[in-house]
Fold this sequence. Notes:
Elements: H1 10-33, H2 40-43, H3 53-94
Helix pairs in contact: 1-3
Amino acid sequence: PVPELPRASYPTQLVYLFLLGLPMSLAGAMITLAGTVLYPFYATAPRVWGLTPLVDQQLGGLLMWVVGTMYLWVAGGVVWFRWSAREEAGDVEREVPLEAYGSAEK
């Protein structure tokens, strides 16, 4: 981090990670759900594992769509739990009584 620039707030970081994943998810979904081979040249390439060009394309799109965005979910989880820990630490520092959160027993 650059000292001159403040770190974004936790909600902003979560929104940023969500928006960062949209292009990859969109591209992966379009490639996976395409009914035809998108690159005709690729259809003429030799097959290594015996997959048809369309199935190979769909598997590649699925990798982009699912696996390619998994790291963003992991990063979002890290941000979420750091935010949660910071909030809990703030409550302890301020000595907020449990009654302030409301009680199920009334």
